[in-house]
Amino acid sequence: MPYAFIHDVPANEQIYREIRTLLPNGTPPGLLSHVAILRDEGLRYVDVWSTEQDWIRFRDETLAPTVEKVLAEHGVPHDESVTTFEEVNVIDVWQGAA
Q1: Cα(first)–Cα(last) distance of the chain, in Å?
Q2: d(C-alpha 93, C-alpha 14), whole Å
Q3: Which domain holds residue 17?
């Protein structure tokens, strides 16, 4: 069963682009879909992964260190308490070509 979540963060598109540029090229193992949405309050990420373990591995080994680096360059602490994270139940994943 896929693992999915919605994550709202108080970041802007510039910070997102800086983080994204530093991430490895190609799709991380286990990622089925990632959508970044610009909102008045910041950004919303909607992710679907093959498994929760795939997400955790990518988050801990790749994403978190990169986010920490970029936020530090902007003088912003990496504070998860200012974000919301909601796991969601996936009933279908339909993905088109990029």
Answers
A1: 23
A2: 29
A3: 3-88
- Asked whether residue 65 is assigned to any structural domain, the reply reads yes
Instruction: Point out the least confidently predicted range of 15-19, 70-74, 75-79.
Output: 75-79
Query: Residue 13 has what DSSP assignment?
Result: H
pLDDT tens digits, residue range 41-60? 999 999 999 999 999 999 99
Bridge-based pairing state of the strands 84-88 and 42-49: unpaired
Q: Tell me if 98 is assigned to some domain.
A: no
Residues in contact with 3: Cβ distance below 8 Å, sequence separation at least 6, in sequence order: 48, 49, 50, 51, 52, 54, 55, 87, 90
Tally the domains of the chain. 1
Neighbours of 85 (CB within 10 A): 11
pTM above 0.85, yes or no: yes
